[in-house]
Amino acid sequence: MGEVFGLFGHPVGHSMSPLIHNDAFQQLGLTHSYHAFDIAPKNLEKAVEAIRTLNIKGCNVTIPHKVEIMKYLDFIEEEAKQIGAVNTIVNDQGRLIGSNTDGRGYLESLLPSLDRSLSEQDVLIIGAGGAARAIAAVLVKEQVQSITFANRTVEKAEALKVAFDANHRNLAVSSLQEAEQDVPKFSIIINTTSVGMSPKVNERPISLDKVRSNAIVSDLVYNPLETSFLKEARLKGTKIVDGLGMFVNQAALSFQKWTGVEPDRRRMRELVLKQLGGNNVNR
Ligand code: NAP
Q1: What CATH architecture applies to the domain 104-242?
Q2: Is the CB of 253 within 6 Å of ligand 1?
Q3: CA of 194, closest atom in ligand 1
Q4: Counting atoms of ligand 1 from 1, which one is nearest the CA of 133?
Q5: Whose CA is nearest to atom 44 of ligand 1?
Q6: Is the CB–ligand 1 distance for residue 156 below 6 Å?
Q7: What CATH architecture applies to the domain 4-100+245-275?
Q8: Which residue, judged by its Cα, is nearest atom 48 of ligand 1?
Q9: Is residue 117 exposed (0-12), middle (13-18) or buried (19+ Cβ within 10 Å)?
């Protein structure tokens, strides 16, 4: 009999994860199944206990449980500790191991667009929430040349800088307005805010009027796939990296942790694109 896998979140109704994981199991001839579990915050501890009781082999974790769930797990991998959140759980014979594939997933979507090494990149991260933190942890580890954190609430960007200061000597903070003025300084610009997500598709986190044409501009929002921000970047001639790559890669990395097998990422991407078809989606 196949094993059971799942997603813990609240809400989970629009999640694409069951679709892509179940399809990947099927493609690989595995009889496993993946279910979305809508877990209210007050039931989180019991839900984690159920992973052990029901012998659920692995889980993804999404909003709002990514941070809170950590205290119920038996071991947290180093990168997830740095990110301060878990998006993947492996049940190793009752021992629950938490990890985070978001940052690596993002990095893997970025790498094919680079024509210089990471150590030569000056990065602007717009936003200071969970996704920004996951990406920052990985870029700090990779020792990019510099990272500037820009956020609507500047104090949160400051807190992000403080969290990583000990591991990188070239971190800075700015307001969104300052970042907009400083845009020519950056070789990689990443929108990690939800600005531009459907239905408010005409919004942009900052203007890219002054962007370098050899920069890479990236957006974590993938509904729509080409956000207003990415459209502006494309018209300025920059390379663009959409948010679907991160979504697919983080899923594929979780899948590998659970099964030891690499799923067909291109097929995962196509499935999500087909499903998107103009609908609102999130994880
Ligand atoms: P989060 O922790 O809630 O952080 C949200 C961030 O967006 C904060 O920095 C917030 O600024 C900023 N923000 C929200 N509305 C804004 C507005 N109107 N103007 C300016 N800034 C605004 O969320 P998250 O988990 O980091 O996720 C952020 C986005 O990334 C979401 O759209 C999510 O769907 C997407 N995401 C995509 C992937 C993927 O696989 N592609 C993975 C993870 C997340 P303040 O601090 O000022 O509130």
Answers
A1: 3-Layer(aba) Sandwich (3.40)
A2: no
A3: 32
A4: 26
A5: 131
A6: yes
A7: 3-Layer(aba) Sandwich (3.40)
A8: 153
A9: exposed
Domain boundaries, the chain: 4-100+245-275, 104-242
pTM over 0.90: yes
From first to last of its 283 residues, the chain has per-residue pLDDT tens of 799 999 999 999 989 999 999 999 999 999 999 999 999 999 999 999 999 999 999 999 999 999 999 999 999 999 999 999 999 999 999 999 999 999 999 999 999 999 999 999 999 999 999 999 999 999 999 999 999 999 999 999 999 999 999 999 999 999 999 999 999 999 999 999 999 999 999 999 999 999 999 999 999 999 999 999 999 999 999 999 999 999 999 999 999 999 999 999 999 999 999 998 844 443 4
Residues contacting residue 48 through CB under 8 Å, at least 6 positions apart: 69, 72, 73, 96
The closest of 26, 47, 27, 28 to 38, measured between CA atoms, is: 47
